[in-house]
Amino acid sequence: MSARRLSRGAAAPGHRAPVAVGAAAATHAAETVRSRLGVRSPVAAIVLGSGLGALAERLADATRVPYAEIPGFHAPNVEGHRGELLHGTLAGREVLLLAGRFHMYEGHDARTAAFPVRVVHALGARVLFLSNAAGGIRRTFAPGDLMRIADHINLMFRNPLIGPLEPGEPRFPDMSAPWTPRLATLLEAAAGETGVALRSGVYAGLLGPSYETPAEVRMLERLGADAVGMSTVPEVIVAAALGMEVAGISCITNHAAGITAAPLDHAEVMEVGARAAGAFCALVERWVARL
Q1: Is 266 a catalytic residue?
Q2: 227-229 and 198-205 as β-strands: parallel, antiparallel, unpaired?
Q3: Any catalytic annotation for residue 108?
Q4: 10 Å Cβ neighbour count for 219?
Q5: The one catalytic residue among 230, 239, 240, 282
Q6: What pTM did the predictor assign?
Q7: Which residue out of 20, 62, 106, 268 is catalytically annotated?
Q8: Which of 7, 108, 279, 284 has a 20 to 30 A CA-CA distance from 148?
């Protein structure tokens, strides 16, 4: 293939052609979803991380569309991420569920990884709930613990807002309170009402896909991180730029490297996530009822 023909927009062999993932593309994708699912006024959009997809089974009157059929979305290639956008009711409230996410370690840039947040915002959601599986850095954490994300550290060294300024968004969004205190209070109240033990802490986002070394975990501990994972940060940054309220939970699926001598394995992540699913679902359902 000639260089001239490549310059007219064809992707080079082995490279995916770029896809628009800004505000206009989000509006187009939202129109596609609305025509399929009949979305009206969702009180929240909920992103389900690795091993936490059981919440989708609690959705009443559920309709769904695969990610592969939504413009700008990608089918996840990671176990535990179903790759569907669902619409229905939870605790009697209209919600959107993103069953899985596509990660930067799969080869996506930060803007693409955060694109679903733009789409649910275009669908009317103004509250975003993020969940993930994470390694526990704080030494008092145990596998199966649920941690409310109080703050985060972006060590992905990527920002989804780099590039053209989107209409109506600030060039320099305030990140002094990206995890909304009002929603945190509701989560704590929901935990008390359901009897779910809820920790709180700081989430560190790294690129992955390799797990951290013991030296890196010691560094993260000194930086003030309580848990570490490979997602979530691009999403909350875009949500902040859009003026959305955000809450989040990390399911601590394992001790981070060096905290114990045990090796790390994604199968363990899935197993612990499944064990924590009951408490996670009860907590989020009660939280939705309180919105």
Answers
A1: yes
A2: parallel
A3: no
A4: 14
A5: 230
A6: 0.90
A7: 106
A8: 108
